[in-house]
Design goal:
elongated; 460 residues; eight-stranded mixed β-sheet; alpha/beta; six-stranded antiparallel beta barrel; 3 domains; Thrombin, subunit H; Bovine Mitochondrial F1-ATPase, ATP Synthase Beta Chain, Chain D, domain3
């Protein structure tokens, strides 16, 4: 973190290139890394020091570049970029500069914190060993979440990452004792408006903070919105709260860093990504940890360009996750929601035996059945299910019933589907799947299990 300067720093803008400004420093003292400089004639014009040589400073323009001109005098503030935090932020929608975006009154904050906070010391970090129920059957059964963990929804365009994040935000926040912080990195205006309206309707907006950096903002703003969200989450955690931190989308954070790297003229690394990719992601992820004071459970959506999971930008984020929920395009195309791809999806809760033995045994059996189901699917597509042997037909039917059962109507899509959303407890999900495996619902067509809550709905 930058230290305050004793003497005044001043200089003149000598060149402007996109969101980059070159400043020639005329004062004795020089600005430090990340220091905010502002125009002498207009304090709303803000520059952030990114690189400096003896007399020349390269700055990132955080305000409208149209307000800056060559020859303009800028002065140092002695401070790095800060965001206002406090209980007054709850229930509000703000931008990177803390300005309200919901049409409300100016926000009253308790203090200002730098968005470049250091990660907490290793001795204060507390690991999470407690399962967190989401009310989404497919997640609670296939990829259970850990409280205090890092969770990622991974998938290409249009497979439902944002919808799943919104549903999880609704379910968990409604039953959550702490606060929620949502950081929209490159968020569409429509998505931000819909999220705000939905949270307000369900009565959970009063314990939620939305920080938005929309798609039309420049890369410098979008990049720092993620860091501002983390800073807000850290504040509430250090106040002794359980914090749910949601970020949509981590790939856009990586992308914004890549755009900034290109503008600054730095040499690219693998597949044209910035050489600092890993350290940028690490600096953010290492701050999203639980301490002795409170906890942060982070949920992140990760866009996969061209459905290529091996993309370096995607891998840089995946390496930090405890749970990765990979979404399948093939399942989404046939209308199975949530379209979770069981094969590549992982959860440390399963590998660390934090789930019940019964849960783990049933999940193992289901994976084995699913493997046989996939092999038989091509045969069924050609000759029909009736041509299978009796044992294969029984196995195929039960597996299909479980696949259909794991679909679910969402609260976040009620207006689009006409189906009322449901919250299903984990124990109910496990008991229902056990009934399907035991043959208790063999007499019910598999289509009846699509988009229901529990089995009780069709067994009445």
């Amino acid at each position: 973190m930058a230290e305050k300067k004793k003497g005044p720093v001043s200089g003149k803008v000598t060149m402007i290139r996109g969101q980059i400004a070159m400043v020639e420093v005329s004062s004795v003292d020089k600005p430090v890394l990340y220091e905010i400089m502002q125009a002498a004639s207009d304090p709303t014009v803000k520059l952030e020091v990114y690189f400096q040589s003896e007399q020349t400073v390269m700055c990132v323009i955080l305000s409208e570049s149209s307000k800056i001109a060559r020859g303009q005098t800028v002065v140092g503030t002695g401070e790095v970029f800060q965001i206002g935090v406090g209980p007054g932020c709850l229930g509000r929608v703000v931008n990177l500069f803390g300005d309200p975006q919901d049409g409300g009154e100016p926000i009253k904050t308790d203090q200002n914190l730098s968005i470049y906070q250091n990660k907490p010391p290793l001795t204060s970090i507390k690991s999470g060993l407690e399962l967190m129920e989401t009310g989404i059957k497919a997640i609670d059964f296939l990829t259970p979440f850990l409280r205090g963990g890092k969770i990622g929804f991974v998938g290409g365009a249009g497979v439902g990452k944002t919808i799943l994040l919104t549903e999880l935000m609704h379910n968990v926040t409604l039953r959550h004792k702490g606060v929620a912080v949502f950081s929209g990195v490159g968020e569409r205006t429509r998505e931000g408006q819909e999220l705000f309206s939905r949270l307000k309707e369900t009565g959970v907006m009063d314990k939620t903070v939305l920080i938005l950096g929309q798609m039309n903002e420049n890369a410098a703003i979008r990049y720092r919105v993620a860091l501002a969200g983390v800073t807000m989450a850290e504040y509430f955690r250090d106040q002794g709260n359980e914090v749910m931190f949601f970020i949509d989308n981590m790939f856009r954070f990586v992308q914004a860093g890549n755009e900034m790297s290109t503008l600054l003229g730095t040499l690219p690394s693998e597949q044209a990504y910035q050489a600092t990719l890993q350290s940028e992601v690490s600096n953010l992820q290492d701050r999203l940890v639980s301490t002795q004071k409170g906890s942060i459970t982070s949920v992140q959506t990760i866009y996969v360009p061209a459905d290529d999971v091996t993309d370096p930008g995607v891998n840089a984020v995946l390496s930090f996750l405890d749970t990765a929920v990979v979404l399948s395009r093939s399942s989404a195309q046939i209308g199975l929601y949530p379209p979770i791809d069981i094969g590549p999806s992982t959860s440390t809760a399963i590998s660390r035996n934090l789930v019940s033995p019964r849960h783990k045994d049933m999940l193992t059996v289901f994976r084995q059945l699913l493997d046989k189901y996939d092999k038989l699917s091509s045969v069924v597509a050609i000759v029909g299910e009736s041509e299978l042997s009796a044992s294969d037909r029984l196995m195929f039917g039960r597996t299909k019933k479980i696949i259909n059962y794991l679909t679910q109507p969402f609260f976040s899509t009620e207006l689009h589907t006409g189906k009322k959303g449901v919250y299903v407890e984990r124990d109910t999900t496990i008991n229902d799947i056990a009934d399907i495996l035991s043959g208790s619902v063999d007499h019910i067509p598999s289509e009846k299990l699509l988009f229901i809550g529990s089995l009780k709905e069709i067994l009445k």
